[in-house]
């Protein structure tokens, strides 16, 4: 079978390339920008939430990679109707990267070199996960209450059962509000009104570089939201992208905790 992969998730596009499957990519979203040299000439089929199904159909993928959080659930039947195998992913914490690599290696293991590349990536992930394991107990001063903002107007943050929140928890940074958002849906990314009592107890406010690009003017607005907190901008790609980006992401997380 001539494998033709459509990736509708930036992290998964990067993972496909890391597994040596770049030549098999026939479609990506406009947000799938890494690695630039490989994906530059791969056709775009809209965004993660607004996929151009007609264009995707014309590209005739044999496999389509989607994610529970990043893509709309209602496109899945249309993907099946194209005759494509739909690979659904849902890593909810940094440890899940190991299963994610195994998942794609199982699907595409018939392609040359995939299993070897998966093994190398898996070892790198295990090493970095090991480096952060126990970080909270080794550095108790890191424990703090964090507001991780991903959007403005309205302010939006992350629930504690999201990948991002569980990433931060590895160094003892616990996101507020203290709630889970469930397996999927808007509750995983709650709106912050600005009058919540717990805002006064937040010690750090992190302004993500994506999906909303916070500017200098947002620093003061976030400071007013949490007067007692230290406000800083952070690299959202390193903290929220899974797959191969989690390797430098876990290193970045440790550096952030010591800053």
Question: How are the elements arranged and paired?
Answer:
Elements: E1 5-7, H1 10-18, E2 25-27, H2 36-39, H3 53-58, E3 63-67, H4 76-81, E4 85-89, H5 96-108, H6 114-132, H7 135-138, E5 144-149, E6 155-156, H8 163-169, E7 173-175, E8 191-192, E9 204-208, H9 216-225, E10 230-234, H10 236-240, H11 246-257
Parallel strand pairs: 1-2, 1-3, 3-4, 5-7, 5-9, 9-10
Antiparallel strand pairs: 6-8
Helix pairs in contact: 5-6, 6-11
Q: In the residues, how many domains can be counted? A: 2
Distance N terminus to C terminus?
50 Å
What about the largest sheet?
Answer: 4 strands, parallel
Looking at CATH, the homologous superfamily of the largest domain is: Nitrogenase molybdenum iron protein domain
Report the count of strand segments: 10
Rg, rounded, reads 19 Å
β content, as a range? 15-25%
Strand order of the largest sheet: 2-1-3-4
CATH architecture of the largest domain: 3-Layer(aba) Sandwich
The 3D shape can be described as globular
The CATH topology name of the largest domain reads Rossmann fold
> What is the typical, i.e. mean, pLDDT?
94
CATH class of the largest domain: Alpha Beta
Number of helices: 11
Uncertain regions: pLDDT < 50 for 5+ in a row?
Answer: none
Instruction: Estimate the helix proportion, in percent.
Output: 25-40%
Question: What series of H and E elements makes up the topology?
Answer: EHEHHEHEHHHEEHEEEHEHH
- How does the helix and strand content classify structurally? alpha/beta
